[in-house]
């Protein structure tokens, strides 16, 4: 009963907890102007660590994304903290996968882009700098083959513009769910391209379709973003069959657009405020298109760097709770 009430509150037409993005999924709430660092459009990553603490582990390196990279994202909204607990999981709670767009640019395939109930492929330099929370990258250590790259793009193109699978999302915070320990072995299997997905489901489905993850053991509909972060899970089946472990992905690396800092996206400067990062930044303003078409983010201005320093970390760092650690007591992999 409680999960249903919480989900109803979050998705009710009269209660827009997403700041207008769900009500107008192609408007300025979903596609606001943002800063993109001029010297590093994809930002920077710190040294790898399987750790949710927001610590700048120097040195920072320019993030050089490639198709197949998995981004793990953690939103600071209290509503999502409640939903994580109801789903028996924790941070990070969202994810996307880097794909090559049909025009050759890199984009992020994401179900639930910018808190809208849609799947989008968005230019990576825009969406990674847009996110309101924290971001970690799990980069590919083994580049994709041409065929894997093509299949990943094909899957993304078929999924682009589709609806977010709200029914499955609701099921994951109820007792009727594919993640239930005795059910996962038989449920939550890959369904293939062209369907409706939740955020983690679409990432695992895309990787299965590209041949990067074993479709026989993968359970896209039963996997949580936290499972992809730790390569461990509270679910016994997924703990024995982690989708990314040993398949060419590196450990998580905390991402930042401003080297030396580890701040959530919502606390970083937005246009027209001054930009504190080195080398200045471009202002990306999504160009509105006719009708319901998705806006196209384009660079419209340049903001020189502000010499005044910015605090490197949050004044109140996020609390790492019990459900933010997935390790199960007495767990043992076979």
TrEMBL record:
The domain of life is Bacteria
**What ranges does the record give for the region Disordered, renumbered to this chain?**
295-317
Q: What is this protein called?
A: Uncharacterized protein
């Amino acid at each position: 009963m409680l999960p249903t009430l919480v989900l109803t509150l979050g998705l009710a037409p009269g209660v827009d907890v997403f700041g207008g993005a769900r009500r107008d999924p192609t408007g300025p709430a979903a596609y606001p102007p943002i800063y993109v660092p001029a010297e590093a459009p994809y930002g920077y990553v710190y040294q790898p660590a399987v750790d949710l603490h927001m610590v700048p582990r120097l040195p920072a390196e320019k993030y050089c994304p490639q198709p197949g990279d998995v981004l793990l994202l953690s939103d600071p909204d209290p509503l999502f903290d409640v939903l994580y607990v109801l789903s028996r999981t924790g941070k990070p709670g969202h994810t996307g996968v880097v794909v090559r767009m049909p025009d050759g640019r890199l984009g992020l395939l994401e179900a639930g882009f910018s808190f809208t109930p849609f799947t989008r492929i968005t230019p990576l330099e825009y969406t990674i700098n847009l996110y309101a929370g924290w971001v970690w990258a799990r980069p590919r250590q083994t580049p994709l083959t041409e065929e894997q790259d093509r299949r990943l793009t094909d899957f993304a193109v078929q999924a682009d513009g589709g609806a977010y699978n709200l029914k499955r999302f609701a099921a994951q915070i109820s007792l009727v769910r594919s993640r239930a320990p005795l059910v996962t072995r038989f449920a939550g299997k890959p369904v293939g391209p062209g369907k409706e997905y939740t955020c983690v489901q679409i990432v695992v489905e895309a990787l299965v379709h590209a041949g990067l993850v074993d479709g026989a053991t993968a359970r896209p509909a039963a996997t949580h973003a936290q499972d992809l972060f730790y390569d461990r899970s509270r679910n016994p089946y997924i703990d024995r069959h982690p989708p990314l472990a040993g398949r060419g992905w590196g450990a998580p690396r905390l991402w930042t657009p401003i080297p030396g800092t580890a701040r959530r996206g919502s606390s970083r400067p937005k246009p027209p405020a001054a930009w504190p990062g080195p080398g200045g930044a471009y202002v990306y303003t999504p160009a509105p298109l006719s009708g319901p078409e998705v806006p196209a983010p384009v660079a419209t201005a340049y903001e020189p760097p502000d010499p005044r320093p910015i605090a490197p970390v949050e004044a109140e760092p996020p609390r790492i709770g019990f459900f933010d650690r997935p390790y199960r007591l007495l767990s043992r992999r076979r």
